[in-house]
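Below sits the subject:

***
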Amino acid sequence: MPKRTDIKRILMIGSGPIVIGQACEFDYSGSQACKALREEGYFTILVNSNPATIMTDPGMADVTYIEPLTVESVTEIVKKERPDAILPTLGGQTGLNLAFFLMKEGILEKYGVESIGASVDAISRAEDRELFKKAMIEIGVGVPASDIATSVEEGMKIADRIGFPVILRPAYCLGGFGGATAYNRSELQDFLAKAIEMSPVGQVLVEQSVLGWKEIEFEVMRDCADNVIMITSMENVDPMGVHTGDSMVVAPSQTLTAPEYADFVNLSKRIIRKIGITGGGANIQFAQNPDDGRIVIIEVNPRLSRSSALASKATGFPIARVATKLAVGLTLPEVMNQVTGRTSAFFEPAVDYCVFKICRFTFEKFPQAERVINTSMKAVGEAMAIGRNFREALQKGIRSIEIGRYGLGSDGKDKISDAELARPNENLVRGIKDKLRVPNDERIFYIRYALKMGLSVDEIYELSRIDRWFVDNVKQLVEMEDRIRRHRRPSPSDPISIPKDLLLKAKKDGFSDRQLAFLLGTTERKLRTYRKKLGIVPTFKLVDTCAGEFAAARPYYYSTYETMDESAPSDRKKVMILGGGPNRIGQGVEFDYCCCHASYALKEEGIESIMVNCNPETVSTDYDTSDKLYFEPLTVEDVMNIVDVERPIGAIVQFGGQTPLNICRDLEKYGLEILGTSTKSIDVAEDREKFRRLLIEMKLPQPENGTATSVEGAIKVANRIGYPVVVRPSYVLGGRAMEIVYDDDAMKDFASRAVEAAPDAPILIDKFLEDAIEVDVDAVCDEETC
């Protein structure tokens, strides 16, 4: 079927400011949509209030409005621009809710605007909890026992009837916002009041708890000719009770049998047809009872979601681009897959690798917060890793989230020592079991501790309800650690003697050089030299939608340890750009914006751009942003592995936020040239003592201050200056770990933590300036003109 000619002007709604549960994945989808509509010749009108996005760049849409995302504001834009259609499925929950309320207020009907991608009826059927439940029952899909409440009293009666615990799911909310698990009546009363208040329509689903069940997701697409395809399955490593946005997730699912998988596919097709999506995609979430296999539907997102971005990057299938083309009437067979350049989009991706997604939390910003994760999202970002097996992808994923870990364990950063685990006391056993029982951001590390302490796979499963298959894979990593440790050098002067086949197996299981060096009692640099001398170097494989069945026109790459390398480096002049890694407080979409523009600028100069990043939400990890993309952790080892293959003239590190700055000195020591701002300049700006000296040398005023690298030194400096003081560690982002300190006790506590985190990095202690005005200046310099 040809594209629609009865519509010419299309209004797209962005997702607004970044919030927990709604981040740069919607910049990625919105940017792809703008490009797709332009390819088809439509006039695009974009409204978004977030200036840090690629989608709000001049020229991305035909007309861009930086305006509040409210019914009043968008109504004025509709009046002025008179769009024929509105595309609400690429702006997250914000875009979807706004379209729904524009319909409810009669604005769409008044100005003759049609909702494409998902009709208003389809949005209602998926987002209105009552309509959704009714629709699922009509097609014979299992639902947990539940009912709708619009008041606290109604909710209490429903819970009494269903039985505790119950899950609360507010209608038209994002990321589990306002949702909760209530275990008793007193908890429920408070949670209900909050959930009803949070829901834009004052409606909450009170649902039977399926805590501990397996959570499975499917990314599904449907066109106007009723063609339906499965993009991928995704399996949450964490069981139900943890919001999927906070869960560890694998794609494709690893523990389903063939008949179970077929059941999920069948249900997904029935659901997307019943919801009524006739030109786009949906994310469908199921729960499965691990004891009897019973399946129930949890929810459907009739729009692109964070899971959609993960599915897109995991498979190489450009979901947002294809969904946009389907929204304007094209069918799946008619849409060309830009990644392969040869196949139509009517082709279910074939995945011959394992993708692992793990979240980045920022609990260190909120020391009083409980490290418990539940049905309401708390993650501020995520990283995606690709390996040939789950163990490799898991360890690469942990390296990618930038919490100072280089794998699952044995990297010198473990909270509990092997000696303690070998002879655990009663308190330690209880503490580890609690960490397994209650979902938290460190649970994967505590599974390892539990195994080393002697708990069985079955015991860990009963405590955590994490599938035995995943626990067994962690057990295999623990066993591999023990095998490696047997080859530890008796003294530092002895040569490394681990056998080649064991070292190769360890690398195939995702062990980093840092972990191996720790286990073998050597340095990371010596281990790397030894490994390369044995010829154990990574190869790079393609992510190309079709698993090599067709030549990929725009593939991207991941590392593994096999024999065949598919990276095919060119002999062109090339520059590497290091991305920002997972989002966190203080480092978000703005750095992705910078990296994308660096890539565009290199292309303009005829230089091949090579992007390295591990964040699946971003435009920088889109298939067409750079000449080549490597989906890899941003560590010295992983970056240098790419450098060894690609041989760039240098790397740009100044656009990825703090992440690349923290490793640039080590990269330079390995011989990689740093382009743009030098490591020396970065060091002067980031090292508090060097920066202080520079200001003195330049005779520039600064608050009375001093630096210290010890607790005693910090207290001495603070007493000389006089409290209150501002304390700032070196090499941190977004004010992380900065505090105002009022007395010696508080200074002792702060300095102890800072020195433990970075023993050699100076802490700057400044006199706290009261009633001062803060001014920022941005400058660009070419070494001569500023």
